[in-house]
Amino acid sequence: MYYLIFLSPAILLMLWAQYKVKSNFARGMNVPARMSGAATARHILDTSGLNDVEVVETEGMLTDHYDPSHRVVRLSQDVYHGQTAASVGIAAHEVGHALQHAQHYGPLVIRNLAVPAAQFGGTAFMILLIVGMLMQSIQLVMLGIAMYACVVVFQIINLPVEFDASNRAKRILSEMGIVDQQGAIAVAGVLNAAAWTYVAATLQAILTLLYYIMIFSNRRD
Ligand SMILES: [Zn+2]
After folding, report:
1. Which helix (H) or strand (E) holds 38?
2. For residue 217, how far is its CA from the centre of ligand 1 (angstroms)?
């Protein structure tokens, strides 16, 4: 219960950001763009010399992502086919990650290195926490908390990567004339809301870390 109260700023921010993503996405789906999300992605990739990066359609809603291991931009149905500001905004953001990858953008390189550490850290944290509490070993619990720090570091490194991809998207869409001024505002609405979900996730990770440090450092006394 105390955990929920302690994390409430992050939880409220996340709920608000997710609501903003949905409502700004719905609004952006009604603002026309010059081409579809798929055509936009293809156009930006080709003009950037990344003809070999594929653009494919994928299942689900807001499941859009860039897959660095296969060098594929995967776009959800609405984004792939939609000739709207929301569609081209999200498509251009994912292409932004492909551009970062091709240019060995520093924060992305570090983020990709941090992925296995964060995955390991998240799992090891849970196991060490449970085992540590069962065995009443504060050392194991503390080790678990230290493992969770990997997750926090990953979330923090993720922020400049996401912000940069969105900034690239906004700039390129306006430069190429794919959206007009009204479209650019709608694109910013979608991408800025998405950025807040990453800020909320980071805050949640930081508060979780602080929470466990607090309760277990008290318990030691
Ligand atoms: Zn992204």
Report:
1. helix 37-47
2. 36
